[in-house]
């Protein structure tokens, strides 16, 4: 039963956040509040769930949503996304180097 609930949360949380983010610009007076709620929802619930269940692709998607719809200035958002891209790239490079096998030392004749 818990697995079914987690599966439903996984498949409905990203479309719900994306749909809510589409309509945040139409609430002109409440745009700051709507963006804050979308950002908090993406961070508090979705990212924590994705990291706990080792779904790092989903966690990266929710962090991207949180940064894009945060009530920060555009320059700050760009630098946050660049920092996220840097962290992901470094993690991929470290993983690639850790998985390499060392060649066997050949005996001297």
Counted beta strands:
0
Mean pLDDT: 76
Order of helices and strands: HHHH
| Morphology | flat
Structure description:
- It is a single chain.
- The chain has 109 residues and is mostly helical.
- It has a domain at 2-72.
- It has four helices and no strands.
- Helix 1 (2-22) packs antiparallel against helix 2 (31-52) and helix 1 (2-22) runs parallel beside helix 3 (56-68).
- It starts with a helix and ends in an 11-residue tail after the last helix.
- The model has no long low-confidence stretch (mean pLDDT 76).
List the helices and strands and how they pair.
Blueprint: H1 2-22, H2 31-52, H3 56-68, H4 74-98
Helix pairs in contact: 1-2, 1-3, 2-3
């Amino acid at each position: 039963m818990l697995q079914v609930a987690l599966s439903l949360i996984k498949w409905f949380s990203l479309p719900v956040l994306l749909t809510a983010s589409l309509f945040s610009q139409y609430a002109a007076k409440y745009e700051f509040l709507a963006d804050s709620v979308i950002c908090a929802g993406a961070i508090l619930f979705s990212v924590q769930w994705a990291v706990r269940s080792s779904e790092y692709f989903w966690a990266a998607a929710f962090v991207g949503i949180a940064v894009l719809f945060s009530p920060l200035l555009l320059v700050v958002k760009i630098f946050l996304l660049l920092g996220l891209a840097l962290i992901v790239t470094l993690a991929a490079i470290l993983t690639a180097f850790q998985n390499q096998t060392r060649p066997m030392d050949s005996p001297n004749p």
